[in-house]
Design brief:
The chain is mostly helical and 224 residues long. It has 2 domains: 110 residues, no CATH class; 63 residues. It has 8 helices and 2 strands. β1 and β2 form a beta hairpin. α2 packs antiparallel against α3 and α7 packs antiparallel against α8. The longest helix has 69 residues. The radius of gyration is 43 Å and the shape is rod-shaped. The chain starts with 12 loop residues before the first helix and ends with a helix.
Amino acid sequence: MDQIPDYDDSFSTYDVLKTAFEYVNKIGNQMKNLEKDMSILKDKELKTSIKKYADIQHMFEVKGGYKVEENINKICNGFGFDEGFIYEYQGTVLIISHDRYFLDKEVDKVIEIEDGGVDIYHGNYTYYTEEKEKLGKKVQEVTQKKEKQTEDKKTNYQAMIEERAKAKRKQTLEAKIYKLEKELEDIDNKMTEYSGDYVKLTEMYKERWKVQVELEKAYEEWGR
């Protein structure tokens, strides 16, 4: 094996380092091609590409592809490469990082895959987080509005049921009041007939008093 390999002048240090991982590079190239497709595809075609991308990405991860990229970047940084290299690079770069400053500087599109859906944000990481927060607030507002509408419907329905029950109860009371008033009228007529019979009058007074008490209770309940 040559200790000082000879490469074409068009090869950068980054390209030379990547040649040691040819198989992983092929998988990475497939991912890049799919990334380009996903940036223009829509609907069913986009979903198909995303599923294919997920399968290839899994293989890339199993083969240590992400670790290779990380190690190469570390070596490149040691050779003097910086963020400007990635910024000026014309191809697609898949970045895994927790450095928000770095992502804001280098990223111009974020594709979010969540719960089987895909959302594309044309901007850096800060733009993505801000838009994501706005979307979350809108979803929350819509959910709260629907919940309030449902609660209002339940309240109105309950009020309607109570109003119907109240109306029915009043109808029943009105019938009862009419019956008691008729009984009082009959008792008064009979008392006139038995005006000379003290025993009979005493019994009828007692009966009239009971009917009168019941009638007053019915009046009071009807007025509530």
